From TrEMBL:
<protein>
    <submittedName>
        <fullName>GntR family transcriptional regulator</fullName>
    </submittedName>
</protein>
<dbReference type="Pfam" id="PF00392">
    <property type="entry name" value="GntR"/>
</dbReference>
<dbReference type="GO" id="GO:0030170">
    <property type="term" value="F:pyridoxal phosphate binding"/>
</dbReference>
<comment type="similarity">
    <text>In the C-terminal section; belongs to the class-I pyridoxal-phosphate-dependent aminotransferase family.</text>
</comment>
<dbReference type="InterPro" id="IPR015422">
    <property type="entry name" value="PyrdxlP-dep_Trfase_small"/>
</dbReference>
<keyword id="KW-0804">Transcription</keyword>
<dbReference type="InterPro" id="IPR036390">
    <property type="entry name" value="WH_DNA-bd_sf"/>
</dbReference>
<dbReference type="InterPro" id="IPR036388">
    <property type="entry name" value="WH-like_DNA-bd_sf"/>
</dbReference>
<dbReference type="GO" id="GO:0003700">
    <property type="term" value="F:DNA-binding transcription factor activity"/>
</dbReference>
<keyword id="KW-0238">DNA-binding</keyword>
<dbReference type="InterPro" id="IPR015421">
    <property type="entry name" value="PyrdxlP-dep_Trfase_major"/>
</dbReference>
<dbReference type="Pfam" id="PF00155">
    <property type="entry name" value="Aminotran_1_2"/>
</dbReference>
<dbReference type="InterPro" id="IPR015424">
    <property type="entry name" value="PyrdxlP-dep_Trfase"/>
</dbReference>
<dbReference type="InterPro" id="IPR000524">
    <property type="entry name" value="Tscrpt_reg_HTH_GntR"/>
</dbReference>
<dbReference type="InterPro" id="IPR004839">
    <property type="entry name" value="Aminotransferase_I/II_large"/>
</dbReference>
<dbReference type="InterPro" id="IPR051446">
    <property type="entry name" value="HTH_trans_reg/aminotransferase"/>
</dbReference>
<feature type="domain" description="HTH gntR-type">
    <location>
        <begin position="1"/>
        <end position="69"/>
    </location>
</feature>
Amino acid sequence: MNLYEKLADDIERSIRQGVYRHGERLPSVRQTSQRNRISVTTAIRAYVLLESRGLVTSRPQSGYFVNFHGDASERKLLELRPSRPIPISSPVDVSRLVLSTLRSIGVDDAVALGSPYPDPSLFPFERLNRYAYNAGRGKAQWGVTDALPPGNAKLVRQIARRYLENGMAVDPNEIIVTVGATEAINLCLQAVAKSGDVIAVESPTFYAMLHAIERMGMKAIEVSTHPEYGIDIEALAAIVKSQTVTACMVMPNFQNPLGFQMPDERKRELVQFLTAQDIPVIENGVYNELHFDRFYPSTLKSFDTKGLVLHCSSFSKSLTSAYRIGWAMPGRYRDRVEKLKFLNTLTSPSIPQLAIAEFLERDGYEHHLRRIRKAYAQQANLMKVIVSRFFPEGTRISSPAGGYVLWIELPSSVDSMRLYKLALDQGITIGPGYMFSISESTYRNFIRLNYSSPWTSEIEQAVITVGKIVADCSR
């Protein structure tokens, strides 16, 4: 199949599923070309093919518009799947350290270099609140049934549309709205494993994944992870050969804390290996929108042929962390995750879902993302320069391709917990490396710093101060 035919088929599928509706304008030829990394000619040929199929019409100087009303035989997104009765039928321990660290972020207005959260100043909070207010006024009495799984149909449609416009056609009926990505990850893990099972994770890994494993009484096994290429597939294969691994949890794009973007070929290889072993993989994609490169990154989900990739994401890192709206696309485990969502939290809040859906449809999400990506890329470079200049010899730093955190290896004599306490005495928080592993010693001389806040003299001085403390500790 030619590229233009594949693109046309993907768009047709989304039109028939209701992601794009009659009368709506499709992305421009230029946008489609850029997002799918294809030539303008290929994009035009795809649209011309759709026009010949009677699914779109072209309007001079305006673009291409959907020309499809559907009929009773078509599956529409507004219906999703009919709601139906659901039948009721070595431990990780880093949570205390993480909780203590998070609490310290707000202590005495500390400079929050240790925060795991993006700085909210770049988020369009007032505009989102206006949409939320209007949504609340529009329907005076919201009921539980308005937000039952899989979630608000308008938001689901916008999520599916976002993926399509970034080069990946998804079935909107697979999407389940959750209370942030944390709930999505927990539900997916619960769907594929049980207490006592072994879960393979990257090393270092984001502690929210370790929390999920700990909470469910499972065991984590760490797999060495390259700071540029991601999880070591050969090492994972050796582990799988020696013991039973029930599932794998990874963050292939802008991994927290390393910041790498796993190359496409490595993603394909990882999915192929896990598919051959029939091992499901939970993919954390919360930072996917925060890429520094001009192109949207591929996902493990895009290489999945057997429904073994359970893809999780949210708007918390790219739009607002206050609303706590995420989603899961759990592949073959979709029905199981929907049931668990119902049993665990029943619903996700209706008004935040509607507010985000309205923003995505009307208010320039892509423009907002371009602004935040540019800011993060600049701030990442500034922090790397300051760390390189003011931290002692022997310090090594990551090269993030997206996201907003920097991973730093300090001289071996430095203990990051001692550094954490000394920095806190100076009104500065850092993320000690102990949080990113089940081992107490693996990352004892590592720290994670957050560069999402607009660069100020206060932040610059805080980084310099941490560097001086590191120098004192390494003598």
